[in-house]
Amino acid sequence: MTEPLTLYSAKGSGAVAVEAALTLIGRPYAPIDVFDWSGDPTDGEKVLAANPMRQVPALVLPDGEVLTESAAILIWLAEQHPEAGLAPAPGAPGRAQFLRWMSYVSSAIYSLYWVKDDPARLAPDPAARPALVEAAHDRIADCWRMMGEQITPGAFILGDELSVLDLYVAVVSRFRPRRRRLYAAAPKLEGPVRRVDADPRLQALWAERMPFSTGWEG
């Protein structure tokens, strides 16, 4: 029997993409919620042993090895469970573009949330923070646009097979500036992410960990 993994996570966070991958794979895991989004300054201390950056996701393997960074975890899970078909295999057609876009979403888009979710990190002057957040939103939308212009999706981003890239984009695009901005900037991505939203295997997970509440699309 496959030993369960420990996942430092939080409801409504990017770590839910990892939970979605684990759900599709059928790999048992024990989630430890790190943040409750109450603004408590001690939020994140639970994950310190696994990730000094106080960020989720952090995945602890049965032997104690730790993986951080959502893209790395998703790629690793897909490689460890090829039977799930969640990524092109090394050397297979589509592998290069899979790695390209996984890295792109992580570095060009997801990294901006560190700035906009707490603009005081880069803008000591409170008066400057709204403009910084708006600029980050504009940059995120423009990055979606550039991605959308360079892909030729089928049912999903890389073709007709769902991959962890689809899970990643579907979760990250739910954060501000939210989905309506994504649909306008990158219409080619709308169909794939909506199919991820509607996947029957993920409905219980979405309801529990990232509900489709009123106005969620923005």
Helix content: 40-55%
Order of helices and strands: EHEEEHHHHHHHH
The Rg value, from CA coordinates, equals 17 Å
In percent terms, what proportion of residues is strand?
Answer: 5-15%
Largest sheet: 4 strands, mixed
What is the second-level CATH architecture of the largest domain?
Up-down Bundle
Q: Would you give the CATH topology of the largest domain? A: Glutathione S-transferase Yfyf (Class Pi), Chain A, domain 2
Mean pLDDT, rounded to whole units?
95
Can you count the beta strands? 4
**CATH class descriptor of the largest domain:** Mainly Alpha
- Work out the count of structural domains: 2
| Class inferred from helices and paired strands | alpha+beta
Number of helical elements: 9
Describe this structure in words.
The chain is of the alpha+beta class. The protein has 2 domains: 5-84, Glutaredoxin; 95-199, Up-down Bundle (Glutathione S-transferase Yfyf (Class Pi), Chain A, domain 2). It contains 9 helices and 4 strands. The protein has helices spanning 16-25, 70-80, 95-110, 112-116, 129-150, 164-172, 178-185, 190-198, 203-209; strands spanning 5-9, 29-33, 58-60, 66-68. β1 (5-9), α1 and β2 form a beta-alpha-beta unit. The longest helix has 22 residues, at 129-150.
Short description:
The protein has nine helices and four strands; from the N terminus they run βαβββαααααααα.
